[in-house]
User: What shape does this take?
Amino acid sequence: MNDGVRELLGSQYLVIQGGLAHIATRDFASVVSNGSAFGQITATSLPESKDLVAAVDAPCQRTSWPFGTSLAIGHRPLYPFLEVALRMKSRTVSSTGGNSEPYLPRIKEWPGSWPWCW
Assistant: This one.
């Protein structure tokens, strides 16, 4: 099973950085991914959803390893952040801190994104 998850994420090691509010930045995700693990950006720590474009673009410039986007539920409206993450073709979209069920249908519509919840 570990090889399947590792292959799905595209990382060398089965180490997944959690969605850490205000810590899981583009810089941190890049460092984690460059360490051959799976880094994530916590989108909802950003001031606005439009800031996610630059946040996702930065790791693309800093690492050839994949990374994902995490959405912290319950702090603010998620749909704008979710739409940007899907448009940016984030490898995964994960959620923390609440019920992700209302968002799963939209995530599942997008080819190439794998929803997962903590």
About this structure: The helical segments are 2-9, 26-34, 51-62, 79-87, 104-109. The radius of gyration is 13 Å. The mean pLDDT is 82.
